[in-house]
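Fig. S4 source data, part A: sequence.
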Amino acid sequence: MWMSVSGGVMRSRFVLPRVAMLLILAIGALMSGCAGDPSRSSSPAPSFAEGSPLKEPAQMVSHNGLLRAEIAVERRRVDLGGRKFWALTYNGGYMPPTLRIRPGDKLELDLKNTLNEVTNLHVHGLHVSPSGNADNIFIRIDPGQTFHYSFQFPNTLRAGTYWYHPHPHHTSAAQVAGGMSGIIIIDSLQQYLPANLRHITEHVIALKDFQVQGDAIRTENLHIGAPTHRTVNGQLNPTIPIRPGETQLWRLANISANIYYKVHLKGQKFHVIAHDGTPVDRIWTTDSLLLAAGARFDVLVQGGPAGRTQLQTLAYKTGPGGNSFPQANLATLVSEGPAAQPATLPTSSFAPTVNLSDAPIAARRTVVFSENKAGTKFYINGKQFDPNRVDMRAKLNTVEEWTVRNDSNEEHSFHVHTNHFQLMSINGRPHQGHGLQDVASVPAKGQFVIRIRFKDYTGKTVLHCHILNHEDAGMMAVLDIVK
């Protein structure tokens, strides 16, 4: 049995004159901004300090093909915008160390659990064994225990940005929302860039949010649409320096528990060079990027004229039965200093092409996401998650085509472990993403088609909605890859 984090609401009944009752309700509505919404607090929102320079997370870097790391899972007080809150942390920090490795490396990691609940570790998006002491989400690390993980990454591991977070059954959302998420970088992405861009400044732009409950980050009764504080590397609206014309590499990563980001840099473009840790075969350009829960993009950004520009998340709604995320400022890009001649960015081929369009199809499946009317239970193919049941079996060294259908009125963030997939079409329209990915948002009352190749590794793994509230409430299935 997995331990679950649960919370209750104390209610009392009392009688007041009607006028007094209406006055109290009106005052409460003014304070909360949304009368009758239990996801909103009736106390004034706390004030935070903003605008400090962006800090890069500390790094643990592999040497000679090996990274040895120790990570302690702790409940600690952290500083967020000049205020102290209790949080769930890796090595005591709300923004924990970045793990930085290269293809073919080995990661030996000791995870010490000092919490009073079960946890474990998932290396999101990485192509590595799902069995034994590797990326095995069926492992449970009980309170007081230390578990030794051993990951041997293949030489073919794709360069880009990934992340790590806990994956215990039923409490993933609480632990990630509490602060337990960090970045993994697989080096060698720059090899595909022109020589003059291989040593440019790079920034981790880790997007994570927190809700406040007293003097702590909320982990109980999480409401996806509740007011939240969005951070970049654990900072509120930090400043990012750039010179006019300078080219930088930004590693955009949504490492929040539940929410979406639609990232936009006013007046400028993102030049996408990798998606979900897979280098693209052709750089593509856009003025906004939707990062569903769990998604990442590596992008090139060029400094504009001297001045200040807002990095924002735009307003986004996940469907009539979903959530409305408001526009918010994430960071401020400050363009100043000696101007640089803007580099000419590649517009033709970038990384080697990965295309499953003509691959023989070994099996076709339909994967259906659904939920009950109350939005409290979530299903894949009509079943809630059971770690002791195998829902699908796939053969190693084959390609399958899946139609992922969403019968609910809200988007879901589809994610599969161990192997990336190619998104072929969305609602019947062909899609060209210029590479593979491990997260895709399936439209409300819509569907998409993917193709996935099972290679290198056998064992039990999972697919699920990466809106972790939904995963914890049943929207996960077991996939067994066999020879």
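Fig. S4 source data, part B ends here. Confidence is low (pLDDT under 50) at residues 1-44.
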